[in-house]
Specification:
- By secondary structure, this protein is α/β, with parallel strands linked by helices.
- Helices cover 36% and strands 17% of the residues.
- It folds into 2 domains: 174 residues, Rossmann fold; 129 residues, UDP-galactose 4-epimerase, domain 1.
- α1 packs across α7, α2 crosses α3 and α8 packs across α11.
- The termini are far apart.
- GO terms for molecular function: oxidoreductase activity.
């Protein structure tokens, strides 16, 4: 970094679900050179304006060479990626001289609620990844956007409890527990806004936020703080339906959570989604992130019903619609 701004940013997963929007928003700022780190067999489409470097994850020198000269490494990967992939990237980032790592998080702030982090099936992994980054002497910044709204609302009953195609709604408890949820675009905008700040303050009189304020912390972004019932009302408005048009059932959140764990033990991966999502709807409100950066970063307020329409369109692309 030759100035007080980060300029060169590498994105792993730039053709993927969240990474695509992060890369696109970084390009829109006009302040960064964005490079996608990709495998030779990757089928993801790299966004316009993004350079590409092909790597072999089994060849450390390949990773180091791709990351040399990069100021920031952003990691976005599916939960199905090999467990050691992130460690390989962090090791290479350290050797290549990368200054900041945004690890593969993109969910909830795991630091705020210890029991939530332990019980939500991904929290301990995220905390371990953070610890690994710091063990290498690198700062991390955890981008937390909660669950993706369209993906979760439109992704079937195992996520937010809605089977849109068949107009079925499973209400967890009374359906009034709220959580933070975000669109892919909002998380991308928030990440780009963060990395467009100055790295450090110019002097003691400089009171504007800077990137280093967020070292080894969570940066929480949201589109909406809503309950299942709020989502249901939006769905009814958008589809022109009433309660009578839906099959509505109720399930105790704790019983549902343990049912999910049981399915997972049997090898049914649907249990992972059931456990992961249901834990965020517990009465402890662990899925709400009160300390968002939306105002600080001047992020827009999105329209819930418009995003619900996006969830319906997403539902059409998933199995069972």
């Amino acid at each position: 970094m030759s100035s007080n701004y980060v300029q060169n940013i590498a994105v792993v997963g730039a053709g993927g679900t969240q990474g695509k929007f992060v890369a696109e928003e970084l390009v829109k700022t006009g302040k960064h050179k964005v490079t996608a780190i990709t495998r030779a067999d990757s089928s993801g489409k790299i966004p316009d304006g993004v350079a590409s470097k092909v790597v072999d994850y089994n060849d450390t020198s390949s990773l180091v060479e791709a990351l040399r000269g990069q100021d920031v490494l952003i990691i976005t990967m599916a939960v199905t990626a090999p467990k050691d992939t992130q460690q390989k990237l962090v090791d290479a980032a350290k050797e290549a001289g990368v200054k900041i790592v945004l690890p593969n998080e993109w969910g909830y702030d795991q630091d705020r609620n210890a029991s939530f982090a332990k019980e939500n099936l991904i929290g301990e992994r995220i905390i371990q990844a953070r610890e690994y980054v710091t063990s290498k002497g690198l700062p991390f910044i955890g981008i937390c956007g909660g669950f993706w709204y369209e993906f979760s609302l439109g992704g079937g009953e195992v996520r937010y409890g809605f089977d849109i195609a068949n107009r079925q709604f499973t209400r967890f408890d009374d359906g009034n527990i709220k959580l933070s949820t975000s669109t892919w675009e909002q998380v991308g905008r928030g990440t780009a806004a963060l990395l467009s700040l100055k790295l450090n303050r110019d002097n003691e009189n400089d009171k504007e936020p800077v990137i280093s304020d967020y070292f080894n912390k969570s940066v929480c972004i949201e589109s909406f703080n809503v309950s299942q019932n709020d989502m249901f009302e939006s769905l009814k408005r958008v589809t022109g339906t009433t309660d009578a048009d839906w099959k509505i059932t109720t399930e105790n959140s704790q019983e549902r959570y343990f049912r999910g764990l049981g399915l997972l033990k049997e090898g049914n991966f649907a249990g992972f989604a059931i456990g992961l999502y249901t834990r965020a709807f517990y009465p402890d409100s662990a899925g709400t992130m009160p300390n968002t950066v939306n105002k600080t970063f001047n992020l827009p307020q999105e329209d819930l019903d418009e995003c619900t329409k996006g969830a319906i369109e997403f539902a059409k692309t998933t199995k069972g619609y």
